[in-house]
Amino acid sequence: MGKSNDIRPIVKLKSTAGTGYTYVTRKNRRNDPDRLVLKKYDPVLRKHVDFKEER
């Protein structure tokens, strides 16, 4: 039923701390054509770290 939209693809954000924890989110390809980097909470480390987009 859901539509697959190429402007807002689903991306995986992987922790740069090496814990292997990931978030799944959507991004707007027109506003963010490069790889996304967000500061989010890593529950394994119990700290906020950078999460980079994984393809």
Question: How does this structure look, described?
Answer:
It contains no helices and 4 strands. The model has no long low-confidence stretch (mean pLDDT 93). It is an all-beta fold. It has one domain: Ribosomal protein L33 (Rubrerythrin, domain 2), CATH 2.20.28. A hairpin with a 6-residue loop joins strand 1 and strand 2. It is elongated and about 35 Å long. The chain is 0% helix and 45% strand. The protein has strands at residues 10-15, 22-26, 37-42, 47-54. This is Large ribosomal subunit protein bL33. Pfam families: Ribosomal_L33.
What can be said about this structure in brief?
With 55 residues, the chain is mainly β. Helix content is 0%, strand content 45%.
For the sheet with most strands, the description reads:
4 strands, antiparallel
- The CATH class designation is Mainly Beta
Q: Class by helix and strand content?
A: mainly beta
Element-level helix/strand string:
EEEE
With helices defined by DSSP (H or I, 4 residues minimum), what is the helix count? 0
**What's the domain count?**
1
Number of strands: 4
CATH topology: Rubrerythrin, domain 2
CA gyration radius, whole angstroms: 12 Å
Strand residue content = over 45%
| Spatial order of the strands forming the largest sheet | 2-1-4-3
CATH architecture: Single Sheet
Gross geometry: elongated
Could you name the CATH homologous superfamily?
Ribosomal protein L33
Q: pLDDT below 50 for ≥5 consecutive residues: which ranges?
A: none
Considering DSSP H and I runs of 4 or more, what fraction of the residues is helical? under 10%
**Overall pLDDT:** 93
Beginning-to-end CA distance, first to last residue: 25 Å
